[in-house]
Structure formats: structure tokens, C-alpha cells
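We store amino acids, C-alpha cells; thus:
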Amino acid sequence: MRDDLARLREAATAEIADAASLEALDGIRVRYLGRKGSLNAILRGLGQLAPEERPVMGALANEVKDAIGRSLDRQGTALATAALERSLAEDRIDVTLPGRGRARGHLHPLRVVEELMVDVFVSMGFTVAEGPEIEDDFHNFGALNFPPDHPARDAQDTFFLAAGADVLLRTHTSPVQVRVMRSTPPPMRVIAPGTVFRRDDLDATHSPMFQQLEGFVVDDRVSFADLKGTLAAFARRFFGERSRVRFRASYFPFTEPSAEVDVSCMRCPGAPDAPRPGCRVCKGSGWLEILGAGMIHPEVLRAGGQDPERVRGFAFGMGIDRVAQLHFGLEELRAFYDNDLRFLERF
């Protein structure tokens, strides 16, 4: 056995010295020192020795094991050092090159404008409400006084879902008005921002999906003068202290009387008194249409569970996309939805 241990030590030391990689070195370790390795095979013969020889051979076997282990460590350190030196020589990094930083994300420009608008109205005492984007005919049309033959109920204007003709993607955030009125007693002062959907993509100023902000007030003493004062205050806060608003008579099924509301052009220094003829924003008119508004129709109040003999209200709705387009001075509204990082990184 003594000769076997000596030969094993000599063979292992020679193989270790010739190992050219850490993987080969690990194979040598397993072959000689593993549970089924050569050294254990020799040690299994200790039982056949005389009792007085077993301690001597056992101690000799441990010396051989320690010697092989030291050889493995030395060769492993040498191979690892050589590998590191090769890596440093071949994969050298030019530390003078500029670093590659990770770009920080930011809010989408439409969300930025939405938060600015919400902040203005919240500072005026409004609360924020939300509603489902998938609506039914009652909340989207019926409760808002749309007659059965109104064009908005046609599939050419509205996205109806396969679940049935009564299920659709909401065309405005006005259904939130009905839901809040049916669950909240007056007084109410609420805004409802959110995404709406219409089959409308005829030009650069329209998109089949866009953002809208609905606002309404319901109380026992509410007048059209309150509506005008609220929207005038919003225009001054959002577009600048020099901003003015103009109301033009219009028609909406859910308000009576109704009005289209314009704001003075923020790009024309004297608008609307002295608009710039070549202004690309207002086309030289000095005014920009931003929203529709009016006193809440009595039928809408009834559908919302309110008594029009006891309470009155006003409502308004504006496209956040349109306001953002004016806020940033853009001509192409659909650019907000193209997911072009070159465009989004400008904001």
C-alpha cells in the first residue's frame, strides 16, 4: 500500500502540473480525491492490513491527500491569475470613453397636462371621480338625454362591443356625472378625467382614442354666471392672466342652454383685439375653441336621481389632447399616440 500511495502522489502531481485550465484541474481533483476517486479506492484496503499497520498507512494516506490538495491550490491560483491577465490584456476598457447612463423616464405629455388641469380645478374646490371605460347604453346615452335616433348611437360613430349592442366604449366621460349624481347627495363639485373612444380619425386634429375632462356642479343655487366665472378662472390659471373666454350659443342633448367656449389665442400678443394675421394656431381669428358647456338638462338631473325643481347644475367637457396641443403649440394631435421617443423626449 505504501508503494501504491507513492505512485498515486507522483501521478497526481504530474497531471496537476500539466493541467491547462481550471476545468481540467477540477477533473483531476475528482479523479484522485473524489468519493469514488483513486485515493479512496486504496484506503478501502486498510481493513486488510495488520492492526499495527493501519494507523501508519492512514497517516501516510492523509499526507498524500494534503500534498495533492496543496498542488491543486497552487496550480489553481496560477491558472486563475493567468486567465485574469489574459482578460485584462484582451478586454481592456477605455476608461476615457463617456459612460452609458440609463435614461430616466417621465410622464407622458398628456398626463402632464391632465395633472396641471386637475390641479387647477382641485384648487377651486372640485373633487376627482373616475368611471369605467366600458359603458352601457343607459349611462353613455340614455341618461344623458340622447334620443334613440341620435347619430352618436350609430356604429359609424361609436365602438360597440361584441358583448352586445348595449355595451360600448364610452364616447365621453359624462357617464361619470350620472354615476356620481346617483350615489352622492348635493352639493357636488366634481371633475372626471379619463380616456374616451370615438370612430373619428379624419385629420391631424382627431384620434379614435383621446383624453377628456368632464366637470360639473350641482347645488340648489347654481347659475350660468357660476359656469362662466369657473371657466374664466380656469383659463386665467392655465393659459395666463391675460386669457379671455368667449361663449357661443350651441346645442348639446345633456345641457340647456348650451355653449361652445373659446379662449383667446396665447400666441397672438393682442388677441382677440389684435390677432396676428398669420398665426398658425388660431388662423388669425384670435380665438381657439377648447370646450363645450351648459346648464345640466332637467332630464339628466332626473336620470341622476336629482329633483330639477330643487337643484340645478352646470357641466363642461374639454379634450385634454386639444388643450395639450395648444399648451405645447403642436399642429399634429395624433403624435401623442405614435409612441415615437424622438417626439416624447421633447417634453
